[in-house]
Amino acid sequence: xxxxxxxxxxxxxxxxxxxxxxxxxxxxxxxxxxxxxxxxxxxxxxxxxxxxxxxxxxxxxxxxxxxxxxxxxxxxxxxxxxxxxxxxxxxxxxxxxxxxxxxxxxxxxxxxxxxxxxxxxxxx
Length: 124
Known about the structure:
This protein is an alpha+beta fold. The chain is 23% helix and 35% strand. It has one domain (2-120): 6-pyruvoyl tetrahydropterin synthase/QueD (Tetrahydropterin Synthase, Chain A, 2-Layer Sandwich).
């Protein structure tokens, strides 16, 4: 089995509604996103998937998030833009991307700081 990972970053503000603490106020992070895929097969030139294809699937989603107030995006107007919900949204968007058809999307991990992250994945 092969596993490939790519990381990207974006900067955005958010606030956690009904949090009852400082994070309820508008604040920002430089978020890190990691996408991991797996496969047991390589193509004719020995690649699971070109890293450019993997990043090409992720980057348009990152661009939607970058330099935004996440709470104002349609997906987060009713649910909090927590690390957990961001990871889940990215996972579900990537899962539908035909560019990733040759691999299995393993997980999406989102860091809001160097020492705090949340991941979303589906059990198989």
